[in-house]
Predict the structure.
Amino acid sequence: MTTKPPGFFDGTEMPTAGWWEALWPDPAGVLAKVGVKPGMDVIDLCSGDGWFTLQIAKIARHVVAIDIDPHFLDVARQRLSENNVSNCDFVVGDAYKITELWPSPVDFVFMANAFHGVPDRARLAKSVYDALKPSGLFAVVNWHPRPREETVILGEPRGPRTELRIGPQAVEAGVTNSGLKLKTVLEIPPYHYASIFEK
């Protein structure tokens, strides 16, 4: 049995090649739906291999990709370089320490497929609150709490273990003590939802 290094959130490893693209064929559409807009400064928190980072960079004024795994950030850096996108900084570090990693406040923090694995959600939410400008937004994109065998992509069950999945109410409970207020919950087909919070 392997153990995750300190700071890695449970059930948040990157998937094998192919099915990420099958699950998210239109990442730009997801970002538009949750409210990423031109002119924004955005943090892609727990950014992984940059599948969303690239599309955020194409929309926003500037994006900061934060991940604890330097290998994933190298992949993301390469992805953006191949697309001639340069308005991004890549920062290796702990998601609980956003303002230490990037002291400049941002308009938007985006977090996909990772919140379910955060052990101390209130601490993370406070870190996000501190990183946001007034009226800034925090979008949590999460798997619906359906059995894993029901979330099939390319013919196989995918996503985190069933027992790790949480619904919008659990996300809200983990965030709202930070001072962030729930703005809306959106469906992100086929298997996700997005909880949007505002400072």
